[in-house]
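Please produce the structure of this protein holding 1-deoxynojirimycin.
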Amino acid sequence: MTAFYWTIFLLAALCRKTGGQFLDLKNITARDAFLSGTLPDGFLWGTATAAFQIEGGWDSGEKGPSIWDWYSHLPQNVPWGDVATDSYHKYKEDVQMHVNTSLNSYRFSISWPRLFPDGTNTTINQYGVDYYNNLINELQNNGIEPLVTLYHWDLPQKLKERYGGWVNDTLVEMFENYARFCFTTFGDRVKYWTTFNEPWSFVAALGDFNNDPDYTMKYKMAHNVIRAHARAWHTYDDDFRSAQNGSVGIVISSIWGEPADLHNPADRQAATNYMEFFFGWFANPIIGNGDYPDVMKRMVRESRLKQNQTVSPLPEFTEEEKVYNNGTTDFLGINTYTARIISATNETQTCHPDNHNFASACGYMPDLMGVKETIGPGWFYMGSNIFWFAPWNIRGILHFVRERYGYTKPFYLSEVGIGETYKYHSPPNLNDTWRMCFYLTYANEALKAVKLDGVDLRGFYAWTLMDNVEWGSGPDLAFGLYHTNFTHPSRKRTPKRSQGLYGSIARENGFPDNANHVWMTRQWWEWCHMDEAYAPTRHGYVEPTNNVRPTQPAPCPSVSTAPAAQSLMFTGILGILAALVAFCSP
Ligand code: NOJ
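Below is the modeled complex.
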């Protein structure tokens, strides 16, 4: 029987029109069909966190301040990071929360100024070294694989004050020293390292808190970040790999830019340009040809010429640097939450929430021209104007990266998650059915990427373990599987309903075609594709009032243990539908 359904899915997959680097996911019935099966053996299921967002203990021991400590202590801000979720003291509980969720991995970041208070290796904070040693040992004792990020945006404030931050070339060497220290100190137990988390976000959106609307500094920052990444990778490759046998990657974020009309070359080009500015800026030097994407070099130059600037602000890599950059990753971490539909346009775009133009017209990619971003009907709101529910973006982006860059190394989905806005002092809603639907569908898309598209995907990390400090938004934008009580000094954590469902997917390594687990996930699947699951936003954008999440949590359907035969029938019907649609579409 299983073989029968597999055949149907395979046919459906084969029959989809291939769009080269753009996976054709326009057939919504086929796209959204449930797929049963498991992820490869050894697949890593985890959560991801970041030091500033959870640790607290901002000046404990001899820790130096980071640029985020500086920012959050400005008079107009609330220093939520001072205590955060108090993981500096509660790391054992963090680990137990992984155990209780049946997870086998944890992605966390090391705070550079916790180890090197002034950013340099002249002074080392032994308390910080002890803290990370304890955390890593605790993980190891509980059979949980650490995946460690070296830089999740918390630059030592001293490096900002002394050198101006990433805009200064000196940072490349400083980062190499810091990375070397981490490899030396923790590399006997840490086998998965990533250098930078989401360079696009901390360069384009944050810019080290510098005001740089014309991007002269940001292009320079990115240049140094890429050089620092390559340096850290070579350091590991030359001096640590043979003894430690680990791997070093980078985490790049992207919105999946899907062409509005796959058959329209102008839309395809616009979507390619969009992806190159978003993803390719950092990916092309590392997994492409060692250099910035050609289209980016051309468009930055042309757009500056229009402003009578004759020199492009995009720095150039030397030939030697291009060779040095190229191939400097053992795996790619992809953070992806959402998608955009991209079409070509000659009209100037304006930045407004109703336009959903997150990146192109809102100052984040100022030299990108001719691109209109929008979202589809029924993509529901996920707590912020950036994030709209589009689970298939997982398949879209993984396929794009593989095809466009000829990338054949492993992928990890290093962050996938859904936020909700609420006021931290309000009572929590632990019955987060929308988040259950989110993990059910996004994890199922991960399975499809492996089974239908043949992607070498090795891990899935939920963002995030517990409600934490969402940067400038503080605790009012919450992504956790556990609720954190920010009104309580001990930051009590309580599991939400989604924690149980995510744990069950992790325990079963996906969606095996047996057991009650199948029935449970199928029933939820049905529920999640009903309008009530996300009402009223499912039919389009509803302007959030006072920044409060417009969707009220839906009532829970009861979970029954009906016979597996019914669930198989459900899959069968979906499979047949998928196949029919795939066959019949022109
Ligand atoms: C990406 C970032 O890596 C993480 O720090 C942030 O909290 C989430 N996205 C949600 O915005």
